[in-house]
Amino acid sequence: MESEIRKKLLNAFTTHQDDYLSGQAIADLLGCSRTAVWKHIENLRKEGFEFEAVRRKGYRIVATPKKVIADEIRYGLKTNILGSHIHYEESVDSTQKVAHQLATDGACEGTIVVAEEQISGRGRMDRKWISPKYTGVWMSVILRPQLPPHRAPQLTLIAAVAVVQAIEEVTGLTAEIKWPNDVLINGKKVTGILTEMQADADRIVSIIMGIGINVNQKLEDYPEEIQPIATSLAIEKKEEISRAQIIQTLLFKLEKLYQLYLQNGFQPIRILWESYAISIGKNIKARTLSGTIVGKAIGITDEGILLLEDEAGVRHQIYSADIDLE
C-alpha cells in the first residue's frame, strides 16, 4: 500500500515539476492526513531527494538522489506500462537473471530490474559485460507480446532504436547502431543489448530485454584491452549525465516504439533502424559460425535479418555474426 501511495506522490510531483504542491493538495490526492504527507516527504528526503518548502505554497523537489533507486526513476517517468513495477538492487549477478526469475514468477509486462552493479554481467554469446558500480545503466525489461517466437529478434532492433533516440535526446550526442544490437558513438561501443525469450512452441511467454549503457565511466574504468573500443556518454559529452534521466527517456522511447510495432508491424521500425545503422551501404565482414562472408550490407529484412551482397552479386541472409567494417 505504501508503495502505491509513493507512486502517486511522485507522479504528482512529476506532473507539477515547475509548481509547488500544498500539503493539503497532496493529502487530498493521496487520501491521507497532512501528517502522513510530511512523513512520506521525510522518507523521500532520507533517500536523497531535496525539497524546497515555502509557506502558503507547499513543496517542490529541487534535487534528486545520485542512485537510480525506484523512486528516483519514478520521479519524471512518463510511461504507461514500462516501469510500472521497478525492482531495484544495489548489486546482482546480472539483471537478466533476476528478471528471468521474476518473469517465471508471473511479473507483469513493463516490470524492470535495475542494479547499481552487475558482478557477472553478460552480452551476446556469453561475453562478459563490465558493469562497475554507480556508473552506468544496468537494466532488464520484461515484455509479454502476443507474438509467435520467430518475431522475437525484431524486439532487439526496437530496443536499439530506442537507445539511440534516448541518448540523442538527453545528451545531444549522435549514436549509431552496429547490427544487430551494439550502439556506438564515434565508432566506440557505448551500449549492448541482450534479448532473451521464454516461449512455448507457438507463442512468446515473455521477452527479457537486457540493456547496458555506459553512462559516467571514465576511460580508466575500463580494462586496458577494451579502452580503444569502448566509451561512455560522459567521456563523449565531457560531463556527467543523469542516469535516471537516461532510464526515463529510454523507457518512454521504447514504449512508444513497442506500441507502434504492435499496432503497425515491423516496417516502420525497420525504416528507423536502417536510418541509424552504421553499416548499411558499406562493405563489411560478417564472421559467422560457418565462415566469413565479405560484401556490402544492403539492409535488413522484415524479420530483422541482415542482408549482405557479395562481389558476385549473391545475397546472403545473416542471422548471427560478428560484424566488422571493411
Keywords:
alpha+beta, Arc Repressor Mutant, subunit A, BirA Bifunctional Protein, domain 2, SH3 type barrels, 3 domains, 7-stranded mixed beta sheet, 9 helices
Kindly describe this structure:
Its EC number is 6.3.4.15. It comes from Cytobacillus kochii. One of its GO terms (molecular function) is transferase activity. The chain is α+β, with helices and mostly antiparallel strands and 326 residues long. It has 3 domains: 62 residues, Orthogonal Bundle (Arc Repressor Mutant, subunit A); 207 residues, Bira Bifunctional Protein, Domain 2 (BirA Bifunctional Protein, domain 2, 2-Layer Sandwich), CATH 3.30.930; 43 residues, SH3 type barrels, CATH 2.30.30. The chain is 33% helix and 27% strand. It contains 9 helices and 14 strands. The strands form 3 sheets. A 7-stranded mixed sheet has the order 3-4-5-9-8-7-6, with helices on both faces. Helix 2 crosses helix 3 and helix 6 crosses helix 9. The longest helix has 22 residues. It is elongated. The termini are far apart. The model has no long low-confidence stretch (mean pLDDT 90).
Brief sketch in words of this structure:
This protein is an alpha+beta fold.
| Named CATH topology of the largest domain | BirA Bifunctional Protein, domain 2
Total count of strands: 14
Number of discrete helical segments:
9
Structural domains: how many: 3
Task: Name the poorly predicted regions.
Answer: none
CATH architecture heading of the largest domain: 2-Layer Sandwich
**Beta-strand content bin:** 25-35%
- The 3D shape can be described as elongated
> From the helix content, strand content and strand pairing, which structural class follows?
alpha+beta
Tell me the major beta sheet.
7 strands, mixed
- Lateral strand order in the biggest sheet: 3-4-5-9-8-7-6
Quote the distance from N terminus to C terminus. Answer: 57 Å
Spatial extent as radius of gyration: 21 Å
From N to C, what is the helix and strand string? HHHEEHEHEEHEEEEHHHEEEEE
Going by CATH, the homologous superfamily of the largest domain would be Bira Bifunctional Protein, Domain 2
Mean pLDDT: 90
State the helicity in percent bands. 25-40%
Protein name: Bifunctional ligase/repressor BirA
Function: Acts both as a biotin--[acetyl-CoA-carboxylase] ligase and a repressor.
Keywords: ATP-binding, Biotin, DNA-binding, Ligase, Nucleotide-binding, Repressor, Transcription, Transcription regulation
GO cellular component, one term: cytoplasm
